[in-house]
Amino acid sequence: MSEFYTWVAWGLTVLLESCYPAMASAREQVRDLGRDPAYALYQDYRYAYDTYVYLFWDESTGAGPEDAGFMTAGGGWNHMGDVLGEGRENMYDSQPLLAGEDKSPKGQTGAEGETAEGRPEESLPALAQLKDYDYLMKNFYSVHTSTTAPRDLMKAEELLGMDLKVEMDSQSPQILIYHTHSQETYADYGPDHPEATVVGIGNYLTSLLEAKGWNVIHDTSTYDLYGGKLDRNRAYNYALEGISKILQENPSIQVVLDLHRDGVKDTLHLVSETGGKPTANIMFFQGMSRTPEGEIEYLPNPYLKENLAFTLQMQLYGAQRFPGFTRKIYMKGLRYNLHLRPRSALVEVGAQTNSGQEAMNAMEPLAELLDRVLQGR
Prior knowledge:
- By secondary structure, the protein is an alpha/beta fold.
- The protein contains ten helices and 13 strands.
- The protein has helices spanning 2-32, 37-51, 65-68, 127-130, 133-140, 156-161, 198-211, 235-249, 304-321, 356-374; strands at residues 141-143, 175-178, 216-218, 225-226, 229-230, 255-262, 271-274, 277-280, 282-287, 290-291, 294-295, 329-332, 343-351.
């Protein structure tokens, strides 16, 4: 499989480079309008992706773009169940937090209904351990085949030593919460539980952070509907336009959070006992803006290191304070709009098999993780 993906990456690189000169004029026009040049270039390349999407099919396994996590016909990128539909198993839905554990994460329920015991509160691994690249990657990350995490980037000492403190200010916002996929819901969503959605948990997280003194904007705009129909293929494009406008109008914002919920097999229940409550597990998702061949030049993220530091610091504190609450940080090749602020994170909160209350409960420890890192405590 790895050879196949390498071949695909090489083939597309050649293809896109051959198209590059013809795109310059349109790209410059968009750049002159003040829009994200990387987004403009992506739009230029869409025709090539639509035309040559068959390159993403793996004939040896029959896996298509949706299964492999690559681009779908129509120019959109599938990520973590976006186009798979409810109940489809993805390739990483049972990644444990620490090496040597069961395949199912602590506190998660498998096909037979068994639930593992949660671990007691743990001490953080010694820095000497975390400086070991192999230890760090094995215990805290899951890397999709579409990307790579090189040693010169994954330096724990540098990432954990990065100062991510933000000053509170009641007069201007510091945090933006939004939802690329606002239509994602939980198992009990309906007339009796209309709040069992990612927007609903975003409302709760907003109130928790505000109670701690943070000034928060919660963008509840719909980015995954087009013409009244669900369209997640281009949701990241629409979201980029929406949140870019918010950030332009509110330059004081330094933290950007995109809340999602995952899509897993129906027999998997991503839940742990946290704070005495059944709590949906969360997973930090890291877009790397790079393939195994290197950086994706047309999708730059100048804040990649800061993003990595942001999620790793929260992950480590979560492992200590709330054992079993977080899944491994998941890395994938594209950018996912994580390039707009240094403290940007995409957070998967449970999955379609979780109840809305389990997802709500997850906002309490998440708010604590965010508050601790942003206050530098």
